[in-house]
Structure formats: structure tokens, C-alpha cells
């Protein structure tokens, strides 16, 4: 395979990225588009999403923005309908949208607990259900669910977040088994610390002291793995977790 082939390995594919307006989601949108995919960035951050789509369109990529509350089934039905109408296909679903809050378990409220689960766990379920009819029409479709290193392991003051990501890993494995007859691959991505606007004020904190590489991942280091899982290079990988954590969970 030539370098040109590698950089365009997603040509002809259509991808949907949730939480696609900023941070990891925006990086995934840019990377998938740079490899030839037509990409739909979905989010509730309309201003950022529209700006991202316009920028990438000006660079020659095919990128659309649409509003999506991932915890709302009707939103999912509308967005998948829009994709079918414009593109007639969907090859890649990246369930990236997620939220977090920190509080001790004894202070957790049912309202906050339910909100975390609605976005981080129910959202991917609704997305896979809504997208399945389009995905199974395609050869080699791929679903990538963004979990976390705090799915397999715990984190103080992050009970709801850890529970949602552990649940997502289990959901991913079940989907991989059920969707295998359609040739759809389903994997979870487990990042460790990642450089983003939220961590700029605390460059040395968080998981960094316990990460062997002594730093957080750059956004591109996460997006490269997403592009790999979306491509035919990962054609025999399904039902697993791909951990990108600089060695954090190897300790």
C-alpha cells in the first residue's frame, strides 16, 4: 500500500461522529475527513459545529453539521434520516459524545447519575439501534464507542462516569456479537488522559503522574486509532477495547 492509499483509505465511506463540535470529536471529524470520508459532525454545540464544518468544507472536505442530543431517540431518527436522504449510506458510527462530573458516591444524586448514564451509555445504544439499518447495507461497516480507561478500572469521585464507561464496554461486546452476522465491527476505544481545552489549566495533574509516558495524549494520537478502527485495516478486530493511555493501565 502506498502512502497515498493509506491517507485516503476511507474514500467512499460516510461517517457520523457524535460530540463532534470540539475536543476529541472535532479531531475525529478532521481525521476521518482527511482520509477521504464524508463526515457528519453531530452535537448540541451549534456554533462550534457549524464553524468546524465550514472550515473543513473550505479545505475541500465533505463535512456537515447537524444538531443531535444523543439521549433522545427522536433526535437519532431524524439525523439518520438526514444521512440516508443526502448520502444514501452510513459506514462508520463514532459514539464519542460524553459528559463527566466528579462527586463522592455518598453525595451522588439520582438526577446527576441518570444524566451521565443517559448521555454516556443510553446514547450509544440509541445510536446503534437507529444506525443499524443503514450500517448493515454496507460492507465492512464499523462502530467505535468511546469508553475510557475508567471503564476497566475505578476512579475516586467518578462513580457515575466509571459505571457508564464500564457499561459501554459490555454493551460494545454484546453489539459485536449480535452485529457480526452483518459484517459490522464494534469496538470500544479507551483513552487515558487527553490534551484538550479542559486540561490546559492543569497540564501536570490528573492521570499524568501515574502515566508512564508522563503526559497526556494529543488529540491526533486518539484520532489515528479511530481512523484505524474505521478502516479495512482493522477488518478482523471486533468486540474488544483498544486502550490508548500511555501505559496507565499497565501499572
Number of strands: 7
Structurally, how many domains make up the residues? 1
CATH topology: Rossmann fold
Biggest sheet character: 7 strands, parallel
Overall pLDDT: 94
> What structural class is derived from the secondary structure elements?
alpha/beta
The CATH homologous superfamily is termed NAD(P)-binding Rossmann-like Domain
What is the top-level CATH class?
Answer: Alpha Beta
Weakly predicted, low-confidence segments: none
Number of helices: 7
The CATH architecture term is: 3-Layer(aba) Sandwich
Percentage beta strand: 5-15%
Distance between the termini: 36 Å
**Order of H and E elements:** HEHEHEHEHEHEHE
- Please tell me what the overall shape is: globular
What order do the strands of the largest sheet run in, or round the barrel if closed?
3-2-1-4-5-6-7
- Helix amount: 40-55%
Compute the gyration radius: what is it? 17 Å
Describe this structure in words.
β5 (142-146), α6 and β6 form a beta-alpha-beta unit. The chain has a single domain (3-250), classed as Rossmann fold (3-Layer(aba) Sandwich), CATH 3.40.50. With 251 residues, it is α/β, with parallel strands linked by helices. The chain contains seven helices and seven strands; from the N terminus they run αβαβαβαβαβαβαβ. Strands 3-2-1-4-5-6-7 form a seven-stranded parallel beta sheet, with helices on both faces.
Please provide a brief summary of the model.
This protein is of the alpha/beta class.
Which properties best describe this structure?
251 residues, alpha/beta, Rossmann fold, seven-stranded parallel β-sheet, 7 helices, globular
Amino acid at each position: 500500500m502506498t502512502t497515498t492509499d493509506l491517507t485516503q483509505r476511507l474514500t467512499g465511506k460516510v461517517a457520523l461522529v457524535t460530540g463532534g463540535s470540539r475536543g476529541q470529536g472535532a479531531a475525529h471529524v478532521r481525521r476521518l475527513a482527511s482520509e477521504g470520508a464524508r463526515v457528519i459532525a453531530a452535537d448540541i454545540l451549534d456554533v462550534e459545529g457549524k464553524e468546524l464544518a465550514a472550515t473543513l468544507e473550505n479545505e475541500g472536505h465533505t463535512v456537515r453539521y447537524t444538531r443531535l442530543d444523543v439521549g433522545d431517540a427522536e433526535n437519532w431518527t431524524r439525523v439518520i434520516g438526514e444521512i440516508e436522504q443526502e448520502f444514501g449510506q452510513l459506514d462508520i458510527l463514532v459514539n464519542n459524545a460524553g459528559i463527566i462530573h466528579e462527586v463522592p458516591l455518598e453525595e451522588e444524586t439520582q438526577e446527576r447519575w441518570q444524566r451521565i448514564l443517559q448521555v454516556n451509555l443510553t446514547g450509544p445504544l440509541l445510536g446503534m439501534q437507529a444506525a443499524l439499518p443503514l450500517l448493515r447495507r454496507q460492507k465492512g461497516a464499523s462502530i467505535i464507542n468511546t469508553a475510557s480507561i475508567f471503564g476497566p478500572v475505578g476512579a475516586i469521585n467518578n462513580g457515575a462516569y466509571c459505571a457508564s464507561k464500564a457499561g459501554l464496554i459490555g454493551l460494545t461486546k454484546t453489539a459485536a456479537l449480535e452485529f457480526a452476522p452483518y459484517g459490522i465491527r464494534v469496538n470500544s476505544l479507551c483513552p487515558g488522559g487527553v490534551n484538550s481545552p479542559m486540561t490546559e489549566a492543569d497540564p501536570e495533574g490528573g492521570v499524568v503522574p501515574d502515566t508512564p509516558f508522563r503526559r497526556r495524549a494529543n488529540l491526533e494520537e486518539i484520532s489515528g486509532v479511530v481512523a484505524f478502527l474505521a478502516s479495512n485495516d482493522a477488518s478482523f478486530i471486533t468486540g474488544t477495547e483498544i486502550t490508548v493511555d500511555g501505559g496507565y493501565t499497565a501499572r
